[in-house]
Structures are given as C-alpha cells and as structure tokens.
Amino acid sequence: MCLAVPMEVLEIKGKLGNFLDPYRAVVEAGGTKTEVRLDIVDRPPNKGDYVIVHAGFAIHTLTKEEAQKSLELLDDMAQNA
Amino acid sequence: MPEMKDQSTEKIEIQRLVKDIKKLLPKPLKIMEVCGTHTMSIFRHGIRSLLPSEIQLVSGPGCPVCVTDQGDLDKMIGLAQNKDVVITTFGDLIRVPGSEGSLALARAEGAQVEIVYSPVDALGLAQKLPDKQVVFLGVGFETTAPTVAATILQAQALNLHNFSVFSCHKVMPPALEALFDHEDFAIDGLLCPGHVSSIIGAVAYEPLCKKFGIPCVIAGFEPIDILQGIFHLVLQISQSAPRVFNAYPRAVNRLGNPNALALMDKVFFKKNTEWRGLGTIKDSGLAIKKEFSRFDAEKRYDIETVCHQEPKGCICGEIIRARALPTDCPLFAKRCSPTTPVGPCMVSSEGTCSAYYRYGRDESK
Ligand code: SF4
C-alpha cells in the first residue's frame, strides 16, 4: 500500500480548504502523470519539489536533493534486478 | 530524473553495512519489521540472504488487511448485500474470506463492489451515482486515516447525502504495546514503518522504547534503507542503549505531519477495537466523530452480523503476533495459496504468508 517512489510536482492547482476546487498537484514519476491531493501534505510543495503519495494524497514533501536519494536507490535496484 | 549515481557505490555501501552488522552482532537477535511493505521489500530483495544467520527477521502487525477482525469483515460482506449500496474498497480486501463468502463472491452474486485507488475516487463515484449509496471501506493505519478524514470533510462541504465510510482504521503504537505486554513476546528490536512514521513522527515510539527498553529504528523501503535500519538496531543492542532512531530522515521527522494529524483528530476519535490475533486493544481504533455521523456507515446501516468464525485451520492470528511462521501452518502452499487463499495473510500483497509463498519458500529461516 505504501509506494516509496517520490513523484515530481509539475503544477499546483486549487486552494487549501476549498473542496469545490481542491488543493492538488499534477505529479509525474516514470513517465506517468497524475493528480494528487495536497490536503494533508506536511509542507506545501513548490513546482520542482517531490512528494510521497499514499492513496491519491501527497503525505510528505521532499526537496529535489532528498528525492534524488530515493530515486538513485530505486535506479540501482532496477539495474541490479 | 536526477542523474544516476555510480552503481558500484551502492554495492560498496551495502557490503560495508553487512560487514558492520556482522562485526557488531552481540548475540543471536530477533528483529520485527512492523510494516507489511518492509516485509515485501525484505523478501523481494533477498535481504535475509545478506544477513548473518543469527539475525531472525519476523513480521509484525503492519498489514492492514491481515489485522482486520473477522467480525468487521463479516459486516462489510453483510453491507454488500444491501441492494442500494455500492461498496468501494482498496483491492486487497475483496478476496479475504469472511465467515461466509467474501466481497468477491458477493460481487459474483450480484453485489456492487468497486475497487478504488483513493477514497476521493469513492466520493467521485457517489457524485456520479446520486441514486445509490456509496460506502467506502476504511481499512488502514495512520497513513490512510488522514486521507479518509479529508474525504469526509469534502463530502460535508459538498453536502453529499449518499456517501459514507465504514471505519476500521487502526493506530499502530497501541498494538505494538499490546504485543510487548505479553510476557512470552521476545523481540530484540523494532524496525518501525516508514510512512506511518512520516505521519505520527519518531516521537510516537518514545513511550514504547522507554516502557519496554526496546530499540526502535524507523527505516525506509529500499534495501539499503532497511540494512541501515538493521545496522542501527544492532548498534543500539550492542551498546545496550535502546532509543528511538530515525534512519529515514528524508521522509520522517520527530513530530510527524501536523496537518495530517489535525485532520485525523478533527474527524476521528480513538476507541477500543478488535485486531485479528491480538484481540481488543484499548484506544487502537479510529471511529467517526458524532458531528460527522451522517458519513458513518456504521450509524447509517443496521449491519447484520453472523456469528463470526475465523477460517478453519488458518493461523494468521499467530503469525501476526510473531508466534508462528507461515511454514508452520499445515495449509501453507497446500490448500492455501495466493490463488486459493484461506486467510488474509495470503490474500494481501503485504501479508506474510503471501510474501513467503512468492519469494521466501527456500530462504525462510
Ligand atoms: S498459510 Fe493460509 S491458512 Fe495458513 S496462516 Fe497463512 S493465510 Fe492462514
């Protein structure tokens, strides 16, 4: 249930607390683009930040540098697999 | 994508960690990985084969589907029989056998059961089907509960009359405490879950660590994260200095995620709840607060329950408490397999039996 892959934030939409136009982000990982909600994220991300996503909601914002560590680890795994 | 790191650096790091673990190991150790995602990762990447044979890794109560009580499952299956109701759920749950049948079987017999990826998808379905009642089955821990809380707040803002949640959400620390309260429970260290901890923070393990003198290390999900976590546990044990250590600082901080916690608190309150294998644990379940009771499926429906019965011969309860391994179960890989699961630990992709079946049959030790 927990996906560890951080997703890159491409665009921010909506407004926090406005459920008619929910606070959300367009994110991308591995060539797949999707929208995630930002209602419960620990820190509002900026474009270029990364987020950890659970059940369609971003739960944690990572800087590019922090995300890089996760992504490197994943790349290595893919190569070693 | 960030540029790639030299692959060999990673290998060298892993070798160094394994060497250090071996060097520091003071005695044979039993370490519990609490989270089902850790269990999967440990198997998938063959972590056991890297570790000295004196380290035994056992799985804990961190697979949400596995710890869901049989009585709650029966209620969910009962709810699906209601002709007006469309059940929405995460995928794993639908094949779990209840006392009679499963959600998948109910669906084959005409019940409306939809798999969703997010609770907001369930809410979207309710908007699309104004003549139906959409019920979301809320199963999960502190990572999932805030997403459901946000969805309920949205349903309230939208003034939806046909959306509700059957809340079986659970919180992790009381279950861990309940495990350690059993005097025959002998675990030397806890590998604490990554994303649950990102919500509740490292601080949530401090009472447990203090009360039972148990080393707690929060770890991420990649092989090197897990090895780092195990290294820190072995280090603490070798120094006889148990503490809470956060080995996953890129996703977890000491106090957790205040936004998620506040939303959870706004919508849910803690109540005593039943866990498979662990019985009733005080303040370990999340129920929907009164002011949101119109979104509470338990309040809205009179849910019939059959006298509940765990699957015959299944020892999932023992496995969740780390008192038995899947290979101790006489049904394992015989009558029970991922295609014909008898118990929840074989159904869920995070379940210990399923992990053993898919990856671990010859390296389990
Ligand atoms: S192997 Fe099947 S029957 Fe045995 S404990 Fe696991 S899930 Fe239950």
Write a concise keyword list for the protein shown above.
heterodimer; A: alpha+beta; five-stranded antiparallel sheet; 1 helix; B: 365 residues; five-stranded parallel sheet; four-stranded parallel sheet; binds iron/sulfur cluster
Question: What ligands are attached or bound here?
Answer: iron/sulfur cluster
Q: Hey, roughly how much beta strand do the residues of chain B contain?
A: 15-25%
H/E series of chain B, N to C? HEHHEHHEHEHEHEEHEHHEHEHEEHHHH
Report the mean per-residue pLDDT of chain A as an integer.
Answer: 85
Computed CA radius of gyration of chain A, to the nearest angstrom = 13 Å
Textual characterization of the structure:
The complex is a heterodimer of chains A (81) and B (365). Chain A has one helix at 64-80, and strands spanning 7-13, 24-29, 32-37, 50-54, 57-62. Chain A is an alpha+beta fold and 81 residues long. The two termini of chain B are 39 Å apart. Chain B contains 17 helices and twelve strands. Chain B has helices at 7-24, 36-44, 47-50, 64-67, 70-80, 103-108, 119-128, 145-157, 172-181, 194-200, 206-212, 223-238, 258-267, 297-300, 316-320, 344-347, 352-360; strands spanning 29-35, 55-62, 85-89, 112-115, 133-138, 163-167, 169-170, 189-192, 216-218, 244-246, 268-275, 279-288. The interface between A and B is large, with 34 and 49 residues. Bound molecules: iron/sulfur cluster. Iron/sulfur cluster binds next to α15 and α16 of chain B.
